């Protein structure tokens, strides 16, 4: 069996035209001749060094992917690069073979499929992106830049987002500012705006090195925390100690000091049902309350919490609609407990949930 899963492009590459921005475009964005040369040399030296240093990790992760289901180790998919030139981008495969054709231009979520624990670990820690160091070495990508985009996704977003083609004035990056600081549910216009801000700024190797080192520290932290949790749950708790009686498909978050309110009018902050948010995942949340819900809904809930940033305390809210799924036995002195199956009221509220309650952004 092949070690690389090949995916057929869903668009005619001959129809992918170049934008009006050349790679040596002067002025406010794009590469200058000197910056193009220095960035290319920087990419080659650093990517080669990281590949050599990380070779044992590549072998371990590759063997783990291969042993999981016997399928290809790497995923190879078409992406649009500098001046919209198509290239093949590599990743460690985390999805079952053929999943890309079923998903198409959509973003992977829990609605498509449930990932095995190891695959979810690779995606959450971004370790599945490591093979893109070879793309950087080949000159397809930079270390920092807008993330590479699939042709079918480009066809959708270019029609709706102003100046979307500006991203093709530079090579796509292994590290994207938008992906580093925002979750997947961030509105695409906002992510495109962040990417365009990167394209417009002057490139600095010192700043690039700082961002690379910062990203490595963030990934190392996630690997330590989530890897330790994975080993505990899958090896010790579930298989050796047999502590888990159920298999949870989605990981729960426990945001501190979070409250839930039922609102008749989302724009009115009046008294009403209030509860304490105990945990939440992408589908359901559990809350305890001294108040009783009248029926099973649907209800409009406002989930809220304080975020402490230095001396400033910021108030974050997200609106969701939901119905009561179950009423488990309450704990901790609460009179009532509820498990609510919910949907974000708007895409903006989905972003707020991921960013401030589910902890989906890297930083």
Keywords:
Thrombin, subunit H, six-stranded antiparallel beta barrel, alpha+beta, 2 domains, 363 residues
Radius of gyration: 23 Å
Number of helices, where a helix is a run of at least 4 consecutive DSSP H or I residues: 10
Question: Which strand order do you get reading across the main beta sheet?
Answer: 6-7-8-11-10-9
Beta-strand segment tally? 11
Number of structural units classed as domains: 2
**Percent of sequence in beta strands:** 15-25%
Structural class: alpha+beta
The N- to C-terminal Cα distance equals: 38 Å
Low-pLDDT sequence parts: 8-28, 244-248
Any idea what the shape is?
globular
What does this structure look like?
There is one protein chain. This protein is of the alpha+beta class. It folds into 2 domains: 33-99 and 109-232, no CATH class; 258-357, Thrombin, subunit H (Beta Barrel), CATH 2.40.10. Helices cover 36% and strands 21% of the residues. It is built from 10 helices and 11 strands. It has helices spanning 33-53, 55-69, 99-103, 117-125, 132-138, 151-160, 177-181, 188-200, 205-240, 347-356; strands at 4-6, 74-80, 86-92, 142-144, 173-175, 258-262, 274-280, 284-289, 299-309, 312-326, 336-344. The strands form 3 sheets. A 6-stranded antiparallel β-barrel has the order 6-7-8-11-10-9. It has a 3-stranded mixed β-sheet with strand order 1-2-3. A two-stranded parallel ribbon has the order 4-5. Helix 1 crosses helix 5 (132-138) and helix 4 packs antiparallel against helix 9 (205-240). The protein is globular. The protein starts with a strand and ends in a 7-residue tail after the last helix.
